[in-house]
TrEMBL record:
Keywords: Cytoplasm, Methyltransferase, rRNA processing, S-adenosyl-L-methionine, Transferase. PANTHER family: RIBOSOMAL RNA SMALL SUBUNIT METHYLTRANSFERASE I. One of its GO terms (molecular function) is methyltransferase activity. It is found in: Cytoplasm. Catalyzes the 2'-O-methylation of the ribose of cytidine 1402 (C1402) in 16S rRNA. Its EC number is 2.1.1.198. This is Ribosomal RNA small subunit methyltransferase I.
Length: 281
């Protein structure tokens, strides 16, 4: 009889947010796979529980190598509990490889629902929540970051990102460049912790604020692209969008074609706007 893989959400800040089942799972699992065993120790002490099973590390550096070991434990009938440092495993955290491997072996996978920075930030943002998409962390290199952002420039759903505090100002500045400085957003910092802060405003305004330095765990929520008819996008905006794509590495011909599709106008309209801007310069 095969075992069961349990993904357990852990508090993103306030330990009191730990789901009631978490302590029971920590105490009863045959194997506890933790992203950071030291943080796990602090968590179990705070919950007043002692794991009876074997505790192993499971993080980005050993995820590929350790997954087969854990699948073998599961195949042998073990109850394996997976926890990460904060939030839900697999969501920008280790877990996907293990879940996929377990599913492939017809091993049951279940979860202990818990806190989520994505949903918490979304709910607090004040932005539309009926449709959203999670984009995780953006690339660190400026060109790659711009390229990723331009891919979703026309996305109508609310966007949610994670970001490191020391890169927040560059990321918000890039978002302002691609999405427009007036696009509404919310920077959610230290969610559920003592110094929780939600800063709301236009991307340009938020980029200027972040340039002064920001600390803590960061989640950024960005309003989706507004619904615009072709007549609402003027020549200057067409040229700006082409320029953003060129700076991200696209050739001008492809950039013009992509902007035309994105905005819903003939390629000739975009081409003429680019030529006119070049002649004017």
């Amino acid at each position: 009889m095969t075992g069961i893989l349990v993904l357990a959400g852990t508090p993103i800040g306030d330990i009191a947010d730990a789901p009631p089942r978490l302590a029971d799972e920590l105490a009863g699992a045959d194997v506890v796979a933790a992203e950071d065993t030291r943080r796990l120790r602090r968590l179990t002490q705070a919950l007043g529980v002692t794991p009876k099973g074997r505790v192993v590390s499971y993080f980005e550096g050993n995820e590929a190598a350790r997954t087969p070991e854990l699948v073998e434990e599961l195949a042998g009938g073990a109850r394996v509990l997976l926890v990460t440092d904060a939030g839900m495993p697999s969501v920008s955290d280790p877990g996907y490889r293990l879940v996929a491997a377990a599913v492939e072996q017809d091993i049951r996978v279940t979860a202990v629902p818990g806190p989520s920075a994505v949903l918490t930030a979304l709910a607090l943002s004040g932005l539309p929540v009926d449709r959203f998409c999670f984009e995780g962390f953006l690339p660190r290199k400026a060109g790659e970051r711009l390229g990723r952002l331009r891919e979703v420039a026309g996305e109508r759903r609310t966007l949610v990102y994670f970001e490191a505090p020391h890169r927040l100002d560059d990321t918000l500045a890039a978002m302002a460049e691609v999405f427009g400085a007036e696009r509404r957003a919310a920077v959610c910092r230290e969610l559920t912790k003592t110094y929780e802060e939600v800063r709301r405003g236009g991307l340009g305004e938020l980029a200027a604020w972040a340039a002064e330095g920001v600390r803590g765990e960061i989640t950024v929520v960005v309003e989706g692209a507004p619904e615009k008819g072709p007549e609402e996008v003027g020549p200057e905006e067409l040229v700006r969008r082409v320029r953003v794509r060129e700076e991200a590495g696209e050739r001008r011909k492809e950039a013009i074609a992509a902007v035309a599709v994105e905005v819903g106008v003939p390629k000739r309209v975009v081409f003429d706007a680019v030529v006119a801007a070049k002649n004017a310069g």
